[in-house]
């Protein structure tokens, strides 16, 4: 229920803001607005404003529209012709069309800024032992390294305040097929060095659990054992919740990541190898012999003990002042827009995975998870979806605002509007492209759920 309510609330807000942008600029340009609708289909609620606009809430909340007086859509009384959309100057018509995406963009800036102003407690950018063969291991990342800044060229650096900042930068670089440079200090902040994360090697890969493992940037977590699964190899060996693993096969265990990876590799072919663990339990050092069991993990066979970590990553509270937060909102929205456009371009020419497209199921899941996490994560989710809606509507497809802006651009350059015949043909093509995009996004949602259920 939380997921559904969070999704519907987000949808209603973002649609309302988008249509409000069209409405306010239309009224400012002297255009009469006949109806402002949230949703389609049967009208559930109706009110008529002082300017004669009919405000409605309809049964299907999957969009909205602003219907303006327009001679192309019906007869217009002579005394109202000056208020018709088609009678306004080209610059005003273009402004009215662009106002919807602009409103979503401005909302994203405000929401990103609000997230920065409110602040949140997030994991520090302190890294654990990287998996063998991962990009992080090849770059020379070690347990307890702290990432202080990132750069896409090794020259201009952006500060990293949290693990979320780092993960966002890595995801962007991987999606765009570019390397990422990290400014790193060792355990306790000692020393400083620059390393290159070769994220371009994983260009085109879909964002899934295996991709994140191959990148290898996991948080540093103390080697404390949390839950021990009943009937597991760890339970049979006598491991207990709260045990701190000091060494495994005589090697010191710096963090839970090292423990996990050592266990996963403890096999010869399909035969697991026994492990000698030294653990601290209630102030006493205990020797434990454990033999893992083999299990499938995607296309791989790994060894497992059936234990979970019992400590949380080190966290830091991050908050920005008024102007810094506003500037971060501007920067974050611009970076997201630039990255999305470039990613769409790479997907179009086959250099990025089409699985990057998410549909309504993925959005609903993200809405529910962020709402459960608290106000700040939910505001961050709203900002990203609002920015995505702005970019989507600016795509040059006839069914979208971007398509109408292309019509206005043609009219401005040629001095004549696009003919009705061409508009009909382009409308059909645009509708087909949108249907294909929606089908692809929905199939990605279904495929990800089936993978999760496997």
From TrEMBL:
<feature type="transmembrane region" description="Helical">
    <location>
        <begin position="94"/>
        <end position="118"/>
    </location>
</feature>
<dbReference type="Pfam" id="PF02163">
    <property type="entry name" value="Peptidase_M50"/>
</dbReference>
<dbReference type="InterPro" id="IPR001478">
    <property type="entry name" value="PDZ"/>
</dbReference>
<keyword id="KW-1133">Transmembrane helix</keyword>
<dbReference type="Pfam" id="PF17820">
    <property type="entry name" value="PDZ_6"/>
</dbReference>
<keyword id="KW-0812">Transmembrane</keyword>
<keyword id="KW-0645">Protease</keyword>
<dbReference type="GO" id="GO:0008237">
    <property type="term" value="F:metallopeptidase activity"/>
</dbReference>
<dbReference type="InterPro" id="IPR004387">
    <property type="entry name" value="Pept_M50_Zn"/>
</dbReference>
<feature type="domain" description="PDZ">
    <location>
        <begin position="194"/>
        <end position="253"/>
    </location>
</feature>
<keyword id="KW-0479">Metal-binding</keyword>
<keyword id="KW-0472">Membrane</keyword>
<keyword id="KW-0378">Hydrolase</keyword>
<comment type="similarity">
    <text>Belongs to the peptidase M50B family.</text>
</comment>
<dbReference type="InterPro" id="IPR036034">
    <property type="entry name" value="PDZ_sf"/>
</dbReference>
<keyword id="KW-0482">Metalloprotease</keyword>
<dbReference type="InterPro" id="IPR008915">
    <property type="entry name" value="Peptidase_M50"/>
</dbReference>
<dbReference type="InterPro" id="IPR041489">
    <property type="entry name" value="PDZ_6"/>
</dbReference>
<protein>
    <recommendedName>
        <fullName>Zinc metalloprotease</fullName>
        <ecNumber>3.4.24.-</ecNumber>
    </recommendedName>
</protein>
<keyword id="KW-0862">Zinc</keyword>
